[in-house]
Amino acid sequence: MLIVHVLVVLADDLKLAQYPGGLRRALDCGLAKGGHDVDIIDLHADRFAPTMTQEGRRSYHTDTPLAESDVQDYGARVRAAEALVFVYRVGWTGIPTRLKGFVDRTFAPTVAFKLVDGKVRRGLTDVRRLVLVALHEQDRRSVRQGKDVGRRILSRTMRLIVNTRCKRRYLALYNCESRTEEAKSVKFEYLRKVERTLARL
Amino acid sequence: MSTLVVFCHPLPDSFCAAVASQVMNSFTKAGTETRMLDLYKDGFDAIGAPPGLVEKHRLALRSASGLVLVYPTWWGSLPALLTGWLDQLLPYAMGVGRDDATELLSGLDYLIAVTTHGSTKVVNVIQGEPGRHFLRRSLHALCPPRCGMRWLAFYDSDRSTEKDRKNFLNRVDRRITWLMNLMFGHAR
Question: Is this complex scored with an ipTM above 0.90?
């Protein structure tokens, strides 16, 4: 079996551990089954500050764009990844603030992409798999109406800098707060799907 | 009528800051009462800002008849700080708190986004214009029906010349003056 170096970015508060009935367990099981080499960044546990700082912005277009120590560490881990998995839970804004901050601050020129004459060139050519595990508080219709901003940023935009043959998977659970019987079975099915997908990256 | 300008860029000497001051000038020239919230200067925390500061910003938003967002587009969308600001001022989930959010925005007559992009319009369309869709579909949808939205964007700033930037500042000025005349000209 092909061993893949997976970087999992968890962008959620503590609720993720218990909710929805063990997403964390599904992630761990799936990754363990696949026998992958796993690296987990938990933005909430790290108390990641999403705001781009003055120093960060001043050094953004220089040769060493990651000026601060927290993103320096993340930058090295992103560069080492062969698969990216983003796990997040969103309300109406489409993408959680911490995750947007992570992308803003860490995915800088020379780290994630190259700027040649002001044009973006691929930088993460080792990344051949991209999985989004998105828990939406809204229902499918509202997310569709809002044009699913998170998916556009993390999948459609990310596509421009990863390997041309990168496989992209989008696993979305809608109405994730719902507690009805039907929602429970949907959730169960969803967790199985997450596990399956991560096992066969 | 009063206008609230929300500015979100870390550097005070950036082009985005020049755009923000141009926006302020144009509104003042048009005779509207204008107030600027500089999220970086106010030290607004994107995750958990102090309740007092959030309440202050909510009050400013409630009393405004126009909201202008001046920000750089990073990764096709709003900077994390601006997302966090909106999330904390208008926290609502499905069915909960939506009335509160619409009530907060009920005084708005216009919503204007003024933004600078590093890349071209073509690249932004390939990305799916997430920032523009977010403002149009999610934020503007919460505003009252009479509220209009305008999109003023500067593309390809990485390769722009001094002339392009000057042209954009002029365009911002012209658009705002025209809009204010159109909306409130009869009142004067």
Answer: yes
